[in-house]
Design a protein that fits this description.
mainly alpha, 4 helices
């Protein structure tokens, strides 16, 4: 009998420290914020993203991959923009692009 490694049922998109660094950079997410999202110590997250040789291409443990996947998915869902909602103006009174609503009007002046 030969021992074979079973094929994982689920493949996570972030499997190595390099992929984790890329995923964090794409979301403009700091290691401290990921530590807060996962409930882990910041030192632990620093170990996950350590890309120095020989760690850069090693696989993160599967439970850690799952935790990162869930945390980043929830982060993405919480920060997703709703395409049905118009963009918010960046300056007071500025009309947002693609919106047919008029710019905010100043309050009426009461004359005595």
């Amino acid at each position: 009998m030969t021992d074979t490694v079973p094929t994982p049922l689920v493949s996570f998109p972030v499997r190595t420290p390099r992929e984790l660094r890329t995923a964090l950079a794409a979301r403009n997410l700091s290691q401290l914020r990921l530590a807060a999202l996962t409930g882990c110590d910041p030192r632990t997250v620093r170990r996950w993203v350590d890309t120095r040789a020989p760690f850069g291409d090693r696989q993160l443990p599967r439970p850690i991959q799952a935790l990162i996947h869930i945390s980043l998915s929830l982060y993405d869902k919480a920060h997703a923009t709703d395409p049905t909602q118009p963009e918010q103006p960046t300056q007071p009174g500025e009309q947002s692009s693609g919106s047919n609503e008029p710019a905010a009007c100043p309050p009426p002046v009461v004359q005595s």
